[in-house]
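Q: What does the predicted 3D structure of Protein GrpE look like?
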Amino acid sequence: MTTESTKDNNEQVLTPEQLADEIVQQAEEQVEEQHEHAHEVISAEQEKINELELALASAQSTVADQKDSVIRAKAEVDNIRRRAAQDVDKARKFALEKFAVEMLTSVDNLERALENIDKDDENNKSIVEGVELTLQGLISSLEKFAIKAINPQDEPFNPELHQAMSMQEVPGVAANTVIAVMQKGYELNGRLIRPAMVMVSKAAPSVDATA
């Protein structure tokens, strides 16, 4: 009996307040442990989020670079296509240039023949008609291929289209006026292939008022 009484006395008996405090302390410890675990989980997830954001930024940068490359490549292809189309167009327009220049010699010869032949002579009538028909047929053929004559008679002298062979003072005619066309010029699709050879008027010499 004495031993059991002593044992019971040695055991500490908690009051209700102490028991409540112990329970609260245990609950706080559990909450703290859960908080630390949650913090670790959140940190790990944040690292994953950071990695994903970096990967996304890298992917966006790659896409942007590739987009610029595609745009530049497309622009280069468009430029090549445009230059090729221009070259083809030029080749088509001016492929006949050498042939046209050769044909102009025939036109010149026919025109000179008509200028020098005696049209009043009945014996030459059939010859004149034949030359005129040939000349008109040749000119019509040239015009179909956009070859146009430059005949600047009485027009202002234009050094881009005309070649002055001589100059002469002509009373009543303004200076730098074409007074004679010795040989017509020609254009092919607006491009000069032969300048007109002309004679140009010049200004009269100035009179010294004090003389």
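A (community wiki): The structure tokens above were generated from the sequence. The longest helix spans residues 16-94. The chain has a mean pLDDT of 82.
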